[in-house]
């Protein structure tokens, strides 16, 4: 990742990490896309972070899979520092018989900055919504579904150079 001065082409900050540690790999689950998150996350009174989102997709019809993660970075002299590594924002998956019977789980998370600070950095409030769906055949042999929805609030705090 590089930040470049558009007027001069000079590299202002950069970040490199091996796929062995950053989890940005593509195999049976395809790394589909990198997205620059345009929202700025105010992490201290003086610093804003930006995000890089990664989207993964599975190609199996019987086992659908979708995952989106975000990593947050701040500028630090001539480098970029990752302060939130590969945080899952969306997980969707399941298994079914390609006709009716099956189960699926979707988890979505939304990040919002708190006014509370830990170790000089604002906490990140995480709103998590989950939907579990069970598909089944009813007494008339028709496909039906039962959904269970849950919500949970979590807090990420800055500890030892990263949010956890």
What does it look like?
The protein is mostly beta strands and 164 residues long. Helix content is 2%, strand content 70%. It has one helix at 19-22, and strands spanning 2-4, 11-14, 29-42, 48-58, 65-76, 79-96, 102-118, 121-137, 143-156, 158-159, 162-163. It has a seven-stranded antiparallel β-sheet with strand order 3-4-5-6-7-8-9, with no helix packed on it. Strands 1-2 form a two-stranded antiparallel sheet. Strands 10-11 form a two-stranded antiparallel sheet. The longest helix has 4 residues, at 19-22. It is elongated and about 65 Å long. The relative contact order is 0.15. The mean pLDDT is 93.
Percent strand equals over 45%
Shape: elongated
The number of distinct helices, counting runs of at least 4 residues, comes to: 1
Question: How widely separated are the two ends?
Answer: 22 Å
Got a strand count? Answer: 11
Q: Helix proportion of residues, in percent?
A: under 10%
> How is the largest sheet built, in terms of strand order?
3-4-5-6-7-8-9
- Contiguous runs where pLDDT drops below 50 for at least 5 residues: none
Radius of gyration: 20 Å
Write the element-wise H/E pattern from the N-terminal end onward.
EEHEEEEEEEEE
Main β-sheet: number of strands, strand sense, barrel status?
Answer: 7 strands, antiparallel
Question: Which structural class should the secondary elements be placed in?
Answer: mainly beta
Mean of all residue-level pLDDT scores: 93
Q: Oligomeric status of the shown chains?
A: single chain
